[in-house]
Amino acid sequence: MTDLTETPWFLYMIECVDGSIYTGIAVDVASRYHAHASGKGAKYTRSHKPRELLLAVRYPNRSIASKAEYEFKKLSAKQKRTWIAKGIELAKDQDI
């Protein structure tokens, strides 16, 4: 049975200035993005500076968000961009 008081986690995607996509999970995406942008985030984003947050997808807990991150990271760059575009379009359709 799922604990209804669990904190939601987010899978987020950041486009870096070199065009690469960094993917991570966090509870507070805005704070985490700020950490990446200020050079205090992941090692990857210290050498690949973030350009913009592309998408954040909510999951009910860390475990599920981690599994989603693992699966997302296995996708090709083209598949990642397609997935992100669909997520953005879905959010627009729902006025999120």
| Total domain units | 1
Structural class estimated from helices and strands: alpha+beta
Question: What is the N-to-C succession of helices and strands?
Answer: EEHHEHH
Ranges where pLDDT stays below 50 over 5 or more residues in a row are none
3D shape: globular
Provide the CATH topology: GIY-YIG endonuclease
Q: Report the mean per-residue pLDDT as an integer.
A: 93
The CATH architecture can be named as: 3-Layer(aba) Sandwich
Q: Output the CATH class name.
A: Alpha Beta
Tell me the strand percentage band.
25-35%
Describe this structure in words.
This protein starts with 8 loop residues before the first strand and ends with a helix. With 96 residues, the chain is an alpha+beta fold. Helices cover 45% and strands 25% of the residues. 18% of the residues are buried. It has a single domain, classed as 3-Layer(aba) Sandwich (GIY-YIG endonuclease), CATH 3.40.1440.10. Strands 2-1-3 form a three-stranded antiparallel beta sheet, sandwiched between helices.
Quick summary of this structure?
The protein is of the alpha+beta class and 96 residues long. The chain is built from four helices and three strands; from the N terminus they run ββααβαα. The mean pLDDT is 93.
